[in-house]
Design a protein that fits this description.
alpha+beta, 6-stranded antiparallel β-sheet, 7 helices
């Protein structure tokens, strides 16, 4: 991957993670992506569910590359007597790893209120049970940075049940090439796909297949890829590669998923991806994901007759403060480029 395209991908990633987009609150991030595709001369279409599809060209049976731009988040479900907020998770957000994180509440009136997730009675100088308290959404609360000490005062700010809550991403790239941020799942993949289209446009490359791209907005709750373009016979969900105990992948690699929690990927697609990785000389891992589902699974389970697989850059600490590496980004880009033949 050339350095200018690597820089482009990192710029796209930083822009994407800066846009709050918990599942169900994704209009702004999709607007951004539509603008990026349009600026490159394509005609993206917003789907009925709020995602986007775009036809990129080529001939033959349709190949769909997908990523999702919805993220984990939370929703206000009540106001406590002391004015703090009770929240419910949107997707797989974990109370254990949002303690002391900054968050923003998006009210229906358009007001944005900042606050911090804290354990109830959070001072160790006061709470003798601090260490013993199990962290969960019944013990973690959102303290608004507002002068409120009662339920009535908080409600007067315009806060109500159903308001979306977005956790601050804390994006950073280290001098050693590590990318640290919330929501690398899956905005890192979306940034890679946007950069791949830029490369395709710049080089006037001719892929071996007719190619569609889709950005979904309900992946984190399980039904993002349930609807896909009609001529698609093969779907590759570009999503985070799992990094952890028992797996071969690390943050510098691209992961090819042989099987996830819903069953095997299509062997012909897996074999084709492995062949492309070897031809391109990219560092890849072939792994079985024990606790994982993707938009490709959603498409197959919805009844679409497609061959499918998942690939993506290695991401550690998934659904938390995640970590990837620029080499994993580059290896994913190069694998997709080789697979498309561009």
């Amino acid at each position: 991957m050339q350095s200018d395209y690597l820089s482009c991908a990192l710029r796209q990633l930083e822009a994407l993670v800066a846009i709050p987009s918990p599942t169900g609150f994704t209009e702004r991030v999709v607007d951004y992506c539509i603008g990026e595709f349009a600026a490159m001369g394509y005609a993206p279409k917003r789907t009925a569910k709020g995602g986007l599809t775009v036809e990129l060209g080529g001939t033959g049976d349709g190949l769909l590359l997908s990523a999702h731009v919805d993220t984990l988040g939370a929703m206000v479900c009540g106001v406590k007597p002391g004015g703090a907020l009770r929240v419910a998770p949107v997707g797989g957000l974990r109370a254990q790893n949002i303690e002391a994180e900054t968050a923003r509440v998006y009210t229906r009136s358009g007001r944005v209120l900042e606050g911090t997730f804290q354990l109830e009675n959070a001072s160790v100088h006061v709470n003798s049970e601090y260490d013993k308290t199990q962290r969960g959404f019944d013990t973690i609360e959102l303290l608004l940075d507002e002068k409120t000490r009662s339920e009535q005062q908080t409600r007067a700010l315009g806060v109500a049940a159903g308001d979306y809550v977005a956790v601050a991403p804390r994006f950073a790239v280290t001098q050693t090439g590590y990318i640290k941020s919330r929501f690398l799942d899956d905005k890192l993949s979306a940034a890679i796909l946007l950069t791949l289209v830029r490369y395709w446009k710049d080089t006037c490359a001719a892929p071996r297949r007719r190619v569609h791209m889709m950005f979904t907005v309900f992946e984190e709750v399980g039904h993002g890829g349930a609807s896909i373009p009609e001529d698609v016979t093969e779907m590759i969900a570009v999503d985070m590669g799992c990094v952890g105990k028992g797996l071969q992948c690390d943050e510098t690699m691209v992961s090819i998923c042989a099987m996830d929690s819903r069953g095997p990927s299509h062997k012909a697609v897996v074999d084709g991806l492995v062949d492309a990785a070897q031809r391109a000389g990219v560092r890849y891992a072939l792994d079985v994901y024990p606790h994982y589902g993707s938009d490709a699974d959603a498409a197959v389970c919805a009844g679409h007759e497609v061959r499918h697989c998942v690939v993506g850059p290695g991401v550690y600490a998934s659904h938390g403060y995640e970590r990837a590496h620029i080499e994993g980004l580059a290896n994913t880009f190069d694998l997709l480029r080789a697979y498309l033949g561009i």
